[in-house]
Amino acid sequence: MNEKMPKTAVDSGPRTVSTESGQIARDSVWDTSDFPRLLRALKRAQGFALYFVRCNLPARRQQVMAQLQATLGRPVITVELAADFDFLASLEQAVDRAPQDALMFIIGLEKLMPAHDAQKRHQTLDILNWQRGRLERLHRSLIFWIPESIVPHLAEGAPDFWDWHSGLYEFEVPVPMRDSIFEKTIATRGGPEENLSEVERHERMAMLHSLLEEYAVGGSPAELLARGRIAHKLGILYELVGESKNALKFYEQAAGAFEAANDEGEKARAYSALGDIWFDYGNSQSARQYYEKSLEIAAKLAQAEPNRADYARDLSVSYNKMGDLLRSLGEGEAARQYYEKDLEIAAKLAQAEPNLLERQLDLVVSFYKISSLHQGKVKREYLQRALHILLELQRADKLPPANAGWIAAIQQAMD
Q1: For residue 229, what are the contacts with CB-CB under 8 A and spacing of at least 6?
Q2: What string of pLDDT tens digits covers the 415 residues of the chain?
């Protein structure tokens, strides 16, 4: 199969649409002011015409597209653009196979204009601007479904292409749908970002950027908290793909949102992440400032609610990071004291929840870190205890592949 062929579909559309947030009623689309306008324009459309529909989240886009398909009374072809620079050729192929009176719904342009790749974005804009005549020669009505994030790029980077459009229609995401998507993708702490491929990470980043735009205006504590968590998740992803500057920007956004929301726990985690970035940059002074802020908050929360395991773990992690920083500065004795505090908490948590993988891996890290400040028999004892945990997890088939290399690293440290 030709990898550059676009995904196409002809659909007459159901009356309701099953989306990420469940069954969405027809009225939630009709009640938007732009839906009747867009419907009238598409019913009249003949020959070449260019329309843009701004819709940030795929679930909302799916809902609006399905309702249009159900009410237009003419064929609709949905084309997902190939994610390479032959995207116009793939669109031309889809048009050649489409009925003469079909409207062309085009999705996926944002994948050709990723926020993390300015060169690819500019090349895409150049193609749209300088080869726009190829679209006119299709003699079809083309409806591009795009997120808000690429609108300014199109207007500024491909002005001749943009100026051709016959209309820009905007569909906000209903609050229940927005919040449902947030709950399913962001609300829980942690996540599988470390296990995603590079392509999957960038796709997730694009989705999070769109979701962040939906929370850009609201100022309620819940909306501020959501904004902070989305920004924090973006910081994690940017850090994983090696874009520390963008990671720093989103961690700072997260910290600001958490401060406005008055959520001390989340603010401490954002400060800790900011400390990590500055530590990686080699700026020990800034790293220390953020680590100390995070530690101060974590200690207060753990003291106020000593039975909260999440607060205890946050405090353990703060001790661990302060130990790392001080060790890097040659302050071995001070680092050892922090590592000992970290180990004490990690051991208690692992004993309280022996079947929780995270607790066992945390304890392994704590043993390994403190071993680095000892020599001889003491060092070996710490490493043996760490190795024992890993081997037990491996025998029980509970050791994740991402952590399998720890066994060899510890064995090497013991030699």
Answers
A1: 182, 186, 187, 254, 266
A2: 333 333 344 443 333 333 333 343 444 555 566 899 999 999 999 999 999 999 988 888 998 999 999 999 899 999 999 878 889 998 999 999 999 999 999 999 998 998 778 899 999 999 999 999 999 999 999 999 999 989 999 999 999 999 998 999 999 888 888 888 888 877 555 557 777 888 888 888 888 988 998 888 778 999 999 999 999 999 999 999 999 999 999 999 999 999 999 999 999 999 999 999 999 999 999 999 999 999 999 999 999 999 999 999 999 999 999 999 999 999 999 999 999 999 999 999 999 999 999 999 999 999 999 999 999 999 999 999 999 999 999 999 999 988 999 999 999 998 8
pTM of the model: 0.77
Q: What is the CA radius of gyration of the chain?
A: 26
Token output for 328: 């890097």
Give residues with Cβ within 8 angstroms of 319, minimum separation 6: 295, 338, 339, 341, 342, 345
Amino acid (1-letter code) at residue 285 = Q
Q: Which residues contact 127 (CB under 8 A, 6 or more apart)?
A: 85, 87, 88
Q: Over the range 99-122, which residues count as b (16 or more CB within 10 Å of their CB) and which as e?
A: eeebbbbbbbbbbbbbbbeeebbe
